[in-house]
Amino acid sequence: MAKQMLFVYNPRAGKAQIRSNLLDIIDTFVKAGYEVTAYPTQAAGDAVKAVRERRDGYEIVVCSGGDGTLDEVVSGMMKSKERLPVGYVPAGSTNDFANSLGIPKNMLQAADVVVNGRTFACDVGRFNHNTFIYVAAFGIFTDVSYGTPQDTKNVLGHAAYLIEGVKRLPSVRSCPLKITCKESVIEGEFLYGMITNSHSVGGFRGITGQNVALDDGLFEVTLIRKPSNPLEINNIIRALVDKRVKSEHIYTFTTEKLKVESEEPVAWTLDGEFGGEHLTVEIESWHQALEIRVPKEAEG
Ligand SMILES: [Mg+2]
Fold first, then answer.
1. 260 CA distance to ligand 1 centroid (A)?
2. N or C: which terminus of the chain carries fewer CB neighbours within 10 A?
3. Are the C-beta atoms of residues 296 and 89 closer than 8 Å to each other?
4. If one looks up domain 135-286 in CATH, what number appears?
């Protein structure tokens, strides 16, 4: 009997990129011995449901779309009673997580990785009762990151992107936060925070930290305090652009678990999608909780 595959795809992701590739992708899966059930998502939240409520008998769930679709499929899988391996054929404009895993941008090559690659046990982030696969963030740079077209980012580079964020400083509302982890307690007003398990965020490789591993049970945390004058703004920009420059406004550390508390609700993004407003957020790494298909040669 053929192996069963559930293939969940977002037909609109990345300028409907899948339209011209769908037949060849499914053909790749069938040639590798799978019987494929294809499910085009109809609305936000659909992929979570499709994965969570799938019938028994599947051996693998493959998804195609942007990081948001992957986030939904991983969320659905984490809520399932049986966790299956996940394959990913990226189709969005910014695919931070696919980059981190070494999954090819080319959709047919990525489909080949699903059937001929190896399985990698990846950490998953728990965010209260929700899930994220590579980034939970709040504050000023989140909307810049997702609102800036990839082409513009490539042309202007990282510095311009940060400056774009800092330009918005006068209109930024920040509120007092308390961040607690095993290693320390940090209090103050913050412009931005990101908790990541990824080599790149918002299309920028290397901004999350050094020695990043996706299966070490640790997040990289970056927090930026609110500056109070133009000199401090300059200092933050210099420290972001040139990592050798130290700034007392920027905290970077690794941890397996942390809690963020505030007096007013803070809006978060999870894997680039709106993650709700929260007064208290508890974030924890589920160590190697998800099996994902990666290229044979990828370090992971
Ligand atoms: Mg890690």
1. 19
2. N
3. no
4. 2.60.200.40
